[in-house]
């Protein structure tokens, strides 16, 4: 069996999102036959996403009776050299944003990062919420970053590398920075932190559409953004503003996550829609965006955040809801990366 035979078999492997086979889409980077081994390089860009794992499994199945041992690798060809890339070791940068405060954006960012790590991915979490950096508390990060004066080595919690604006200020000190200072510190952290090789860098942005968001949009190659809202109309109005900000900067929105979707009373068993119903899903439909999932209003989320134990790593309906959102974000990041690879082939 030669390279052409292998490629012909791979035409039976469909991309579950892009609607064609991986050969026609240009998602087979290379095929090399070396003795009894077929080495296949695939243009897959979202490690541990369920859909890309399925593609890899389907490739193995397509070649199962070929008489060849199959070795798979995955990479998206880069247009820029490593020296020209802002974060050369980072595959995907995912921003978690909200139009207003108090909707659980940091909670979603922390659980997304921990959930991706639990899948097996190499993950970093950048708490860029300049004026309200809560991530260290939410993961019980007692260790501080280390530095040799030139580079910063981030600590780890739950397999996630951490950097937070909270590490740069004293305990209980207010952050009183003007726009140029915010731009400078964000840029410096991007350049000086030793993130190493990461599959995903999750960025917890401040609420709203201010200087920090603009700096990140102008500085970093974002794979996409996750918009967090509650079902309440007031939150949805502000979420739309955040959505338009990403649109103006040609940034992909990976979907809408709805927090505080409802409360199930542990005593009576009744389900109470305290902040309304279906607002996040309706917003996603109105703007032709994926709905990533809803997270119930659960006291365990609060205690997990205060105690530094991400809920996604536990059991129960709320943990399952966070895992669904995590998998959907990874799947949608993969769609973005594979579409770019297909269109740029």
Strand and helix layout:
Blueprint: H1 3-10, E1 28-34, E2 37-42, H2 50-62, E3 69-74, E4 90-97, H3 105-119, E5 123-127, H4 135-138, E6 146-147, E7 152-153, E8 156-157, E9 160-164, H5 179-192, E10 198-204, H6 211-219, E11 224-229, H7 233-248, E12 253-258, E13 263-264, E14 271-272, H8 279-286, E15 291-294, H9 299-307, H10 317-343
Parallel strand pairs: 2-3, 4-10, 4-11, 5-9, 5-10, 11-12, 12-15
Antiparallel strand pairs: 1-2, 6-7, 8-9, 13-14
Helix pairs in contact: 3-10, 5-6
Helix and strand run: HEEHEEHEHEEEEHEHEHEEEHEHH
Tell me what the CATH architecture of the largest domain is: 3-Layer(aba) Sandwich
Span between termini: 26 Å
Q: Note poorly predicted spans.
A: none
Whole-number tally of structural domains: 2
Evaluate the radius of gyration: 21 Å
Give a description of the structure.
There is one protein chain. By secondary structure, this protein is an alpha/beta fold. It folds into 2 domains: 3-74, GMP Synthetase, Chain A, domain 3; 90-326, 3-Layer(aba) Sandwich (Rossmann fold), CATH 3.40.50. Helices cover 36% and strands 20% of the residues. The chain has helices at 3-10, 50-62, 105-119, 135-138, 179-192, 211-219, 233-248, 279-286, 299-307, 317-343; strands at 28-34, 37-42, 69-74, 90-97, 123-127, 146-147, 152-153, 156-157, 160-164, 198-204, 224-229, 253-258, 263-264, 271-272, 291-294. It has an 8-stranded mixed beta sheet with strand order 8-9-5-10-4-11-12-15, with helices on both faces. A 3-stranded mixed beta sheet has the order 1-2-3, with helices on one face. α3 (105-119) crosses α10 (317-343) and α5 (179-192) runs parallel beside α6. The mean pLDDT is 87.
